[in-house]
Amino acid sequence: MNDMPTDFDMHGFDDSALAEAASLLAHDEPFPGGAVVPPIYQTSLFTFANYAEMADTFAGRRRQPIYSRGDNPTVMEFEARMAALEGAEAARGFSSGMAAISATVLAFVGAGERILAVRNCYGDAYRLFERLLPRLDIKVDYVDGSDAEAVAAALPGARMLYLESPTSMMFELQDLGALTRLAREHGIVTVIDNSWATPLFQKPIAHGVDLVIHSASKYLSGHSDTVAGVVVGSAAHVRQINEQTYSYLGGKLSPFEAWLLLRGLRTLPLRLPHHMKSGLAIAARLKAHEKVERVHHPAYSNHPGKATLTGYSGLFSFEVTEDVDIPAFVDALKYFHIGVSWGGHESLIVPAKASLEQTPGLNSMARFGVGPRTIRLHIGLESVEDLWADIVQAFAKAAR
Ligand SMILES: *Cc1c(COP(=O)(O)O)cnc(C)c1O
Fold it and tell me: Are both 221 and 283 inside the same structural domain?
């Protein structure tokens, strides 16, 4: 392939996790009528043949979907795939990553209790923690998750340890095994946002994490055409979410979105290594570029948290030198679209300089010292040579 960068280093990549995922995603039996694609059960309710069926279902003696705010077969198919991919017993789909985060947190933490979260967690998770949770008398403290000693010092008395490895914008890693051992000693439930790595490149359950959350809007969907979320974990932990929050907060996943996610999942083992290779190639070239001071990509980290990653996705950040006019750089790009989110075909750019002005007083980047010269890139599926040429010409136009 003449499109492959010549300077890429696979960083010891072993593709066995991709092969395993491909096996788990293969449908061994056709769907009703011999369909190779699951049907979309676009129905709000499911009827019963007689009184006894209804009564037995309500009493929990038999299982059948009752109403799509609870269970729906298309959504259940997605949930089963996600549980299998993460090596978990159960999963629950949600209308967004934030619906999954809020329903999970509120299922386990109540008034007078405390959450310990990693700094630089996803911006809207931070805003949920800072805006809504104090009104429910839930306190959130933040810690540098890469510092296991700092976590150990802050952990006693917390009800939940909230992780995201790597973190948003700064891509700081956490040692999942060490942190979950600490949490278990204190009887603290552990949650991780695993959207960046996907279950193909990190399986937190195997490292002791209790609940794994994804914004399915990103790589799982893979086509920038849906907003969805999912949480996976033990049957008991997912049951607690089902019983405490899922049905009542009502942030259910719709059958059509679940169907899009099932379609997206089928190509995840193909898409992700491409994002990885192109991302590593662009990161390496940025690292060598005179206008770049630092690249925040987990591949360049020596932190023990790197050991649980079996690959890298295509999202990372870098810091430019002072003589780069950031708005001019951003505006000069042609392949990189200016926009949030990530995980689809298209390459995207988010300059921290603009994001730092979002929700003044409630901005985790401002609070945790993310600098205005930090720029986040999502490396999409375009030609890596086109992307690099675009960056080079944009730097030339943005010189002050
Ligand atoms: C986008 C995102 C979320 C939120 O997911 P939505 O589907 O947009 O609600 C959570 N965590 C991370 C790391 C994200 O990037």
Answer: no
pLDDT digits (tens, 9 = 90+) for 378-400: 999 999 999 999 999 999 999 98
Nearest CA to ligand 1 atom 2: 215
The set of residues, in sequence order, having a beta carbon less than 8 Å from that of 86 and lying 6+ positions away, is: 194, 199, 203, 204, 205, 212, 232
Q: Which atom of ligand 1 is nearest to the CA of 227?
A: 7
Nearest to 26 by CA among 262, 206, 188: 262
CATH number of the domain that 327 lies in? 3.90.1150.10
| pLDDT (0 to 100) of residue 12 | 76
Question: What's the gap in Å between 362 CA and the centre of ligand 1?
Answer: 17
- Residues 251 and 290 grouped into a single domain: no
pTM: 0.97
Owning domain of residue 372: 268-397
Nearest CA, atom 12, ligand 1: 122
Backbone angles phi, psi at 88, to 5 degrees: -115, 165
Q: In the structure, which protein residues have their CB atom closer than 6 angstroms to any atom of ligand 1?
A: 96-98, 122, 168, 193, 195, 215, 217-218, 227, 229
Secondary structure letter of residue 253 according to DSSP: P
pLDDT digits (tens, 9 = 90+) for 305-317: 999 999 999 999 9
Count: domains in the chain: 2
CA of 323 to the centre of ligand 1 (A): 32
